[in-house]
Write a structure and sequence with these properties.
mainly beta; 0% helix
């Protein structure tokens, strides 16, 4: 999206196999934005916040990475991770939407806040959540369903904290 442009998404779904660059205005139109394809790509731009209604990561290659370099991505309805890697880095992935993970990996390196920052209902039946910040991190266990994870990995230096009763249905690596 150019510095003078506006993109209004399709009300049903748009599929993106390449990079998504937002330098102006993106209107989600209550539709699904799905990242697919086998290549590693970026979610970038000069806007401070890009808001999605339903953000879906369903890469055809499980090692393909979608890297968020936007400061803030907000999800209002559903963040869905089925396949591939979504690397938030030290940026913000937040919103009142739900979080569904059936496969893939969600990588979070943000410090000094509880992650993931999505506050809706969590449904995690597969995949991996990785806290990989270089410093202290706290895992969210207070949103509905957020006390159940599948694979959970803690890497890099600093304390990784789980504040509530948590069920790990897969592997735990610290």
């Amino acid at each position: 999206i150019t510095a003078n442009g506006t993109l209004t998404s399709h009300a049903t779904k748009i599929l993106i196999e390449g990079n998504f660059t937002n330098n102006r205005t993106f209107n989600h139109n209550n539709g699904i934005v799905e990242f697919t394809g086998s290549n590693s790509v970026t979610l970038s731009g000069s806007t401070v916040t890009t808001t999605f209604y339903h953000l879906k990561i369903n890469k055809t290659n499980s090692s393909a990475m979608l890297t968020q370099s936007l400061a803030t991505v907000t999800v209002t309805s559903l963040f869905e991770l089925n396949n591939g890697i979504y690397n938030v880095g030290t940026n913000t992935l937040n919103g009142a939407g739900a979080l569904t993970i059936t496969g893939g990996e969600l990588q979070l390196a943000k410090l000094l806040t509880t992650v993931p920052e999505i506050t809706g209902t969590y449904t995690i039946t597969g995949g991996t959540v990785t806290l990989n910040g270089v410093g202290n991190q706290t895992l969210r266990t207070s949103a509905p369903g957020s006390n159940t994870y599948f694979n959970l990995i803690f890497t890099n230096s600093g304390n990784k904290t789980i504040t509530g009763l948590t069920v790990i249905n897969g592997d735990f690596l610290a």
